[in-house]
């Protein structure tokens, strides 16, 4: 089974969304056979990737950074989207952090990088804004020789 993990920004600019969605779909379409998708299901790139992977009948492994992860979602709609995807997961991995911290996010991101065959990064190419951000996970994966596919819309800046 092929395993693709995701790391990416929570905020995808509206003008880049269609391009990024199409690029993620294109990556998923290149794989024939069984597929496992690894995601922390954060708002933005993680949920987009998980939704598209599930639409292609992939098995979803959810990597939860902390015990209080659900508290990080803004409002009932974001939490409902997270729970809807989590309920469709085939398996769940929980990091041993009671609280959502940069270290917890880094642990979840490196777990995904370590356990996938390819890392898909919805990334603007800029440094991470905190430990465990997309830039950190891309660097971690590349340092370990993991194939990384970067998707972004040239000329678009993240908010």
Number of domains: 1
> Structural class from helices and strands?
alpha/beta
CATH topology: Rossmann fold
CATH level 1 class label: Alpha Beta
**Biggest sheet, open or closed, and with what strands and sense?**
6 strands, parallel
Note the main attributes of this structure:
159 residues, alpha/beta, six-stranded parallel sheet, 5 helices, 40% helix, globular
Write the layout of secondary structure elements.
Blueprint: E1 2-8, H1 14-29, E2 35-39, H2 45-55, E3 59-64, H3 75-87, E4 91-94, H4 102-114, E5 118-122, H5 134-143, E6 148-151
Parallel strand pairs: 1-2, 1-5, 2-3, 3-4, 5-6
Structural description of this entry:
It is built from 5 helices and 6 strands. By secondary structure, the chain is of the alpha/beta class. The chain has a single domain (20-111, 126-151), classed as Rossmann fold, CATH 3.40.50. α1 links the parallel β1 (2-8) and β2. α1 runs parallel beside α2 and α4 packs parallel to α5. The longest helix has 16 residues, at 14-29. It starts with a strand and ends in an 8-residue tail after the last strand. The mean pLDDT is 96.
Task: Describe, in short, the structure shown.
With 159 residues, the protein is of the alpha/beta class. The chain has 5 helices and 6 strands, in the order E-H-E-H-E-H-E-H-E-H-E.
């Amino acid at each position: 089974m092929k395993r693709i993990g995701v790391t990416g920004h929570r905020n995808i600019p509206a003008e880049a969304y269609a391009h990024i969605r199409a690029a993620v779909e294109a990556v998923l379409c290149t794989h024939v056979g069984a597929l496992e998708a690894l995601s922390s299901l954060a708002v933005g790139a993680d949920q987009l990737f998980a939704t598209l992977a599930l639409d292609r009948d992939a098995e979803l492994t959810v990597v939860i950074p902390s015990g209080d992860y659900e508290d990080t979602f803004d409002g009932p709609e974001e939490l409902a989207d997270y729970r809807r995807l989590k309920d469709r997961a085939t398996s769940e991995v929980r990091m041993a952090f009671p609280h959502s911290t940069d270290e917890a996010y880094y642990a979840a991101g490196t777990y995904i990088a370590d356990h996938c065959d390819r890392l898909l990064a919805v990334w603007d190419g800029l440094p991470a804004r905190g430990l465990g951000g997309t830039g950190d996970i891309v660097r971690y994966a590349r340092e370990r020789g993991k194939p990384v596919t970067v998707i972004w819309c040239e000329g678009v800046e993240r908010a």
